[in-house]
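ok trying again, last paste got cut off:
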Amino acid sequence: LVGMGANNSYIKLKSSGDDYCFIGATSAGDGNDYGKMYIATSDNTSEPIIFGRGYVHDGDSAPTITEDMRIASDGKVGIGTAAPDAPLPSAALILESTSTVTNAKPELKLIASGNLTDDYDLGGVFFFGKDDQDALISYASIFAEIDDESGDPASQDGALYLQTFKAGNNT
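nice, full thing came through this time. structure:
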Protein backbone atom coordinates (compact mmCIF):
# COMPACT_ATOMS: atom_id res chain seq x y z
CA LEU A 1 0.00 0.00 0.00
CA VAL A 2 1.44 3.34 -1.01
CA GLY A 3 -0.02 6.57 0.32
CA MET A 4 0.66 9.80 -1.53
CA GLY A 5 -0.81 13.03 -0.30
CA ALA A 6 -0.08 16.73 -0.17
CA ASN A 7 1.54 16.38 3.24
CA ASN A 8 2.36 12.71 3.63
CA SER A 9 3.84 9.93 1.53
CA TYR A 10 4.44 6.44 2.79
CA ILE A 11 4.84 2.79 1.98
CA LYS A 12 2.88 0.51 4.28
CA LEU A 13 4.11 -3.07 4.47
CA LYS A 14 1.73 -5.64 5.95
CA SER A 15 3.30 -8.62 7.68
CA SER A 16 0.43 -10.57 9.29
CA GLY A 17 -2.92 -9.89 10.92
CA ASP A 18 -3.08 -6.27 12.01
CA ASP A 19 0.71 -5.91 12.20
CA TYR A 20 2.46 -3.69 9.70
CA CYS A 21 5.43 -1.42 9.29
CA PHE A 22 5.83 1.67 7.19
CA ILE A 23 8.46 3.94 5.78
CA GLY A 24 7.29 7.43 5.09
CA ALA A 25 7.75 11.16 5.09
CA THR A 26 5.60 14.00 6.32
CA SER A 27 5.66 17.76 6.18
CA ALA A 28 3.99 20.45 8.25
CA GLY A 29 1.23 20.94 5.71
CA ASP A 30 1.61 24.71 5.78
CA GLY A 31 3.50 25.00 2.50
CA ASN A 32 6.88 24.67 4.19
CA ASP A 33 8.70 21.42 3.63
CA TYR A 34 9.75 20.25 7.08
CA GLY A 35 10.29 16.72 5.76
CA LYS A 36 10.64 14.05 8.40
CA MET A 37 11.37 10.44 7.61
CA TYR A 38 9.64 7.77 9.63
CA ILE A 39 10.43 4.09 9.96
CA ALA A 40 7.88 2.52 12.25
CA THR A 41 5.98 -0.58 13.25
CA SER A 42 2.31 -0.79 14.18
CA ASP A 43 1.28 0.01 17.75
CA ASN A 44 0.08 -3.52 18.40
CA THR A 45 3.47 -5.17 17.93
CA SER A 46 6.52 -5.36 20.14
CA GLU A 47 8.86 -6.14 17.27
CA PRO A 48 12.08 -4.15 16.92
CA ILE A 49 13.09 -1.89 14.07
CA ILE A 50 16.14 -3.48 12.45
CA PHE A 51 18.72 -1.82 10.20
CA GLY A 52 20.93 -4.03 8.09
CA ARG A 53 22.19 -5.16 4.72
CA GLY A 54 21.03 -8.07 2.63
CA TYR A 55 19.18 -9.38 -0.36
CA VAL A 56 16.02 -11.22 -1.35
CA HIS A 57 16.42 -14.70 -2.87
CA ASP A 58 13.07 -14.65 -4.65
CA GLY A 59 9.55 -13.43 -3.99
CA ASP A 60 8.64 -16.36 -1.72
CA SER A 61 11.75 -16.57 0.45
CA ALA A 62 12.64 -14.56 3.50
CA PRO A 63 15.45 -12.09 2.81
CA THR A 64 18.99 -12.78 3.99
CA ILE A 65 19.89 -9.85 6.23
CA THR A 66 23.04 -9.04 8.15
CA GLU A 67 21.82 -6.98 11.08
CA ASP A 68 23.81 -3.85 11.90
CA MET A 69 21.57 -2.13 14.43
CA ARG A 70 18.19 -2.55 16.10
CA ILE A 71 15.89 -0.40 18.19
CA ALA A 72 13.80 -2.56 20.51
CA SER A 73 10.20 -1.63 21.28
CA ASP A 74 11.30 -0.56 24.79
CA GLY A 75 13.75 1.97 23.32
CA LYS A 76 16.94 -0.02 23.89
CA VAL A 77 19.46 0.29 21.07
CA GLY A 78 21.85 -2.41 19.93
CA ILE A 79 24.71 -1.87 17.52
CA GLY A 80 26.33 -5.18 16.66
CA THR A 81 24.01 -7.16 18.93
CA ALA A 82 20.55 -8.67 18.49
CA ALA A 83 19.82 -8.31 22.23
CA PRO A 84 20.20 -4.66 23.25
CA ASP A 85 20.24 -4.18 27.01
CA ALA A 86 20.32 -0.39 27.38
CA PRO A 87 19.11 2.77 25.67
CA LEU A 88 21.60 4.62 23.52
CA PRO A 89 23.67 6.60 26.01
CA SER A 90 23.09 10.32 25.80
CA ALA A 91 24.86 11.42 28.95
CA ALA A 92 28.38 10.62 27.82
CA LEU A 93 30.68 11.15 24.91
CA ILE A 94 33.44 8.61 24.87
CA LEU A 95 36.33 8.85 22.44
CA GLU A 96 38.43 5.71 22.46
CA SER A 97 41.22 4.70 20.14
CA THR A 98 41.54 0.96 19.65
CA SER A 99 44.23 1.30 16.99
CA THR A 100 47.43 -0.69 17.37
CA VAL A 101 49.36 2.08 15.60
CA THR A 102 51.96 3.73 17.84
CA ASN A 103 50.76 7.09 19.24
CA ALA A 104 47.20 6.63 17.91
CA LYS A 105 44.93 8.76 20.03
CA PRO A 106 41.35 9.97 19.93
CA GLU A 107 40.84 13.61 19.06
CA LEU A 108 37.96 16.01 19.51
CA LYS A 109 38.14 18.98 17.17
CA LEU A 110 36.02 22.10 17.51
CA ILE A 111 36.44 23.99 14.24
CA ALA A 112 35.30 27.56 13.67
CA SER A 113 35.25 28.96 10.16
CA GLY A 114 34.12 32.09 8.44
CA ASN A 115 35.03 35.65 9.30
CA LEU A 116 37.46 35.01 12.17
CA THR A 117 38.55 38.20 13.94
CA ASP A 118 40.30 39.22 17.14
CA ASP A 119 38.39 38.06 20.25
CA TYR A 120 36.42 35.55 18.15
CA ASP A 121 35.05 32.77 20.38
CA LEU A 122 36.26 29.48 18.87
CA GLY A 123 34.10 27.24 21.04
CA GLY A 124 34.15 25.61 24.41
CA VAL A 125 33.07 23.00 26.84
CA PHE A 126 30.55 24.09 29.44
CA PHE A 127 29.63 22.23 32.62
CA PHE A 128 26.10 22.58 33.99
CA GLY A 129 24.01 21.01 36.71
CA LYS A 130 20.29 21.22 37.45
CA ASP A 131 18.85 22.38 40.75
CA ASP A 132 15.70 21.00 42.43
CA GLN A 133 13.51 23.15 40.15
CA ASP A 134 15.27 21.85 36.99
CA ALA A 135 17.01 25.20 36.40
CA LEU A 136 20.41 24.98 34.73
CA ILE A 137 23.33 26.21 36.82
CA SER A 138 26.68 26.89 35.17
CA TYR A 139 29.60 25.62 37.24
CA ALA A 140 32.63 25.79 34.97
CA SER A 141 33.76 26.28 31.39
CA ILE A 142 36.77 25.85 29.17
CA PHE A 143 36.79 27.95 26.04
CA ALA A 144 39.14 29.27 23.40
CA GLU A 145 39.26 32.47 21.44
CA ILE A 146 41.44 34.23 18.90
CA ASP A 147 43.64 36.86 20.55
CA ASP A 148 45.31 38.17 17.40
CA GLU A 149 44.02 37.31 13.92
CA SER A 150 46.56 39.21 11.84
CA GLY A 151 46.08 37.32 8.59
CA ASP A 152 49.62 35.95 8.78
CA PRO A 153 49.46 32.41 10.23
CA ALA A 154 52.99 32.79 11.62
CA SER A 155 51.92 35.63 13.94
CA GLN A 156 48.41 34.63 15.01
CA ASP A 157 47.68 34.08 18.70
CA GLY A 158 45.03 32.06 20.51
CA ALA A 159 44.00 31.83 24.14
CA LEU A 160 42.49 29.09 26.28
CA TYR A 161 40.41 30.08 29.31
CA LEU A 162 39.30 28.08 32.31
CA GLN A 163 36.42 29.66 34.17
CA THR A 164 34.77 28.48 37.37
CA PHE A 165 31.84 29.86 39.31
CA LYS A 166 31.88 30.31 43.06
CA ALA A 167 28.90 31.72 44.96
CA GLY A 168 27.34 32.60 41.59
CA ASN A 169 30.32 34.65 40.39
CA ASN A 170 33.00 34.01 37.77
CA THR A 171 36.41 33.13 39.23
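cool. The radius of gyration is 25 Å. The mean pLDDT is 75.
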